[in-house]
Amino acid sequence: MFCVVFMRLDALEEAVLNLLLKDSSLGVKGLAERLDRSRNHIAKVISRLFERKILRGYTVVLNPLKILFDRSIFLFVKTNPHEYDIVEGLLGLPNVQSMDGISGEYSLLGVYRFRSPLEFSSFLSGLDRLMVVSRFKKYRLVEILTTFKESGFIVPDPKTDYYPVSDFDWKLLSILRHQVNPMPYSQSDLAKRLGVSQPVVSRRISKLRSEDVIIGYTAKVDFSAIGLNAKFYLEISVDPRAYLSVAEKLCEFDEVRSIYRTGEEYGLMAVVRTRDVKHYNQFLLKIFEIEDIIDTHSSVVFQEWV
Description:
alpha+beta, eight-stranded antiparallel beta barrel, two-stranded antiparallel sheet, 11 helices
């Protein structure tokens, strides 16, 4: 005998998660004010969500157009379901942003971003070592040319071509991107981790925000807990004259969490979350009202690692 435990959220828990997805910098005080609850009550809700692993931490959303990544790619890999060491190896490669198990010819899809040619070269060397022991030895690299929307945040047009991110800035951003704790780090927490004063941290964060390097604060959550059970990668073929206009229209859909321009025949790649396959089909019908969309190809996500 066994039982299946469903994650049931009450209205307040769901409201907290949705607000944290949109702006996790609100903190307990901001959430309490928005939801008309006491700070103590909100703090207990957050702790409970974290203990249940529905809330998994926090991150910042960065503007890749300002950081000037040397290269950003999608990595498609064909594997056997029993090749667990390949998955672990891919997750261990430098600068992995996400890794999903998908349907179709390829069974894994990862996103990687590199700040220098040396980082990309190190990645390729690690990938080659993994392919030696892989059963299929088949993979495909697709370069990301630009990013229109990232993790629910529309990427603003850069005020300058790029922002010179210092080593200190990058250490600060790295900590902000990987927060596995019930509450976001305070500026005092960040200062202690970096060995500087709180005002230094405050000035650097303000600068990174004003320069649109940081474009948002969000939470890492189990999306199925808020009813978004299905995740898809959607490749979109577009009239070559209309990539920008189509991408801007797609950014307006809440279902579209991220959207990228690639150099492939299907030149737009979107990350889409919906309640289920039925609602995904309804979403597809809606976007085909955009006349410059020619064709689409969908991959269902079966498992998310990052």
